[in-house]
Write a structure and sequence with these properties.
- The protein has about 350 residues and is mainly alpha-helical.
- It has two domains: about 1-100 and about 140-175, no CATH class; about 185-360, no CATH class.
- Helix content is about 85%, strand content about 0%.
């Protein structure tokens, strides 16, 4: 009898392991669908305040309110596409006609001026250029091919974009659709508590994602003004990219700063380094720093304190842990995930002392 019990336990363990492996494999195979659902959920959280405003304040019918919100979201996406696609096409055409040798000569000239400005001798410059493999090893012919691959990727993403919009529409129209799907997996005696938790999570994350939109908008305006003031080409696109990179905590602003420096310096290739390129780059970086100061001391504290109601130290530690566990993706989803966990813990484990301490502001 004992041997039979052990054998049954082993078989159950094997069955559980096999089930977990199959579930993991299944989720891996449908990972693109899960990504679509996740993005659609975020879009519905962003659009939710608009639907509620149209429905409660302007007395729109629910379907009309959802359609109006979707048209608004689509117009924003269309505006972004209209901003980038012509630029990519134009730059692709320009690069197809580009004199690669002239581009390399301009970069070498910029490199020479930088070395001279910082006090290296002419002999050092010549020897550095001759011994350095930086420019000789760079094959600038990859740029047109790279842009062509981007256009191909954009074409394949059109299917994903349609799927996301379709799912978002029903998430907005039937706000309980996602909730009802989860309730099927929950015991009946836990349904009311879980429903309350999901309502709280929805409200908090909706305010959080709307706050992120305003954060990007503020940075976009600051960066655009700075770049236009100093005559940087494609200022609007550069400003949008750098503002969007700010969504990646800590790492994003660094990447955005490097991108802005690089594009500011290369927008005036052939100009005098000490008289034109360096001063303009310094002014641009001062403007970038001002934008970061506004973001760090105004935008982010306001978003975190009023939306997810967490202490800045909590947010810092959660983002670091998310980055260590899951990389950049973990850093991006750390705050929403942590907020959802806090709400669930408060609802189901409110009597625990640690939980009470962590969730006292919720």
């Amino acid at each position: 009898m004992k041997a039979k019990t052990i054998a049954d336990g082993i078989l159950r363990a094997i069955a559980v392991i096999a089930g977990v492996v199959l579930l993991g494999y299944f989720l891996f195979k449908i990972s693109s669908v899960l990504v679509y659902i996740s993005i659609a959920a975020i879009a519905s959280l962003i659009g939710r305040p608009i639907v509620l405003f149209l429905r409660n304040k302007l007395k729109f019918n629910n379907t009309i309110a959802v359609i109006t919100t979707m048209l608004f979201l689509i117009s924003i996406i269309g505006g972004i596409i209209a901003l980038f696609i012509p630029l990519i096409v134009q730059q692709g055409h320009n690069l197809s006609l580009l004199n690669i040798d002239q581009l390399q000569a301009n970069l070498e000239n910029l490199y020479t001026q930088v070395i001279q400005y910082f006090g290296f001798s002419t002999y050092d410059i010549e020897s550095n250029l001759k011994s350095s493999t930086i420019f000789s090893s760079l094959d600038f012919k990859f740029i047109p091919d790279f842009l062509n691959s981007i256009v191909g990727i954009l074409g394949s993403l059109s299917i994903g974009l349609f799927s996301i919009l379709f799912i978002t529409f029903f998430f907005l129209k039937d706000s309980k659709l996602f909730e009802d799907g989860i309730m099927v997996l929950v015991p009946e005696n836990k349904e009311s508590r879980l429903k309350k938790s999901m309502d709280t999570i929805g409200n908090l994350l909706s305010r959080y994602f709307v706050g992120l939109v305003f954060q990007i908008l503020i940075l976009f305006v600051i960066y655009t003004v700075v770049l236009l003031m100093f005559g940087i080409e494609n200022a609007i696109v550069i400003a949008f990219l750098c503002a969007l990179l700010n969504l990646i905590p800590y790492v994003g602003p660094i990447i955005g700063g490097i991108l802005m420096i690089t594009l500011s310096m290369t927008s005036n290739l052939g100009a005098d380094f000490s008289a034109v390129i360096l001063p303009k780059t310094i002014y641009v970086m001062i403007g970038f720093t001002i934008g970061q100061l506004v973001d760090n001391f105004f935008s982010q504290p306001f978003i975190f304190s009023s939306s997810v109601k967490s202490h800045p130290l909590e947010i810092f530690l959660v983002i670091i842990i998310g980055g260590l566990l899951f990389g950049v993706t973990g850093m991006i989803i750390a705050v929403p995930g942590y907020t959802a966990i806090k709400v669930i813990l408060k609802e189901f484990f409110a009597e625990n002392k640690i939980v009470r301490s962590v969730t006292k502001n919720l």
